[in-house]
Amino acid sequence: MPQTPFKNHSLPGRIEVGDFDEGGEGVGYHDLTPETGNDYRPGTAIDLKPRPGGQWATVDTQAGEWTAYTVRVPFGGVYRCEVLVSNDRSPGAFRVQVDGVDAVPIMPAPNTGSRDVYVWVGVPGIRLRSGAHVVKLLTERESISVEAMRFLAEVFDPAPPAGEVVTTLSSGLYRVP
């Protein structure tokens, strides 16, 4: 089955972790415990649990599991990427890729002392070009829970002057110093 968006995501904005792409195992997600599942996305193996406020969070993730999200970036620029994580057992860790390139390097998920306490963890300085991209959230060390990701605009690219030729690189992502 091809990878298609479950929901339309536009950046800057928030991505709920349960709204990963359609396509099934190995396309929209990868889960190492397929016998589990959830009520939000029946037929998928991702371990989702309801959260207060109507959101869903991945729980009991294992190293090597991931979810993918097709996003639209109307305005290129520099963004901050943050992940809303909970970790009651150290040392959990995650990373975020955009179009197959690490945008957020392996980040520790701080021990929040409870599965019900979440904190935002992330990095600034992620350069995204306008257009469609695939964002992938990867678990590097188990036992973290994730509710959402968000991309916050730091600086938008200026519009090129009329008549200027703009060359787009094949990768939609690069880091700025």
TrEMBL record:
| Occurrences of domain Carbohydrate binding module family (ranges) | 51-137
What Pfam families does the database record attribute to this sequence?
CBM_35_2
Concerning InterPro entries, the annotation shows:
CBM35, Galactose-bd-like_sf
Superkingdom in the source lineage: Bacteria
Q: What is this protein called?
A: Carbohydrate-binding protein
Species in which this protein is naturally found? Candidatus Segetimicrobium genomatis
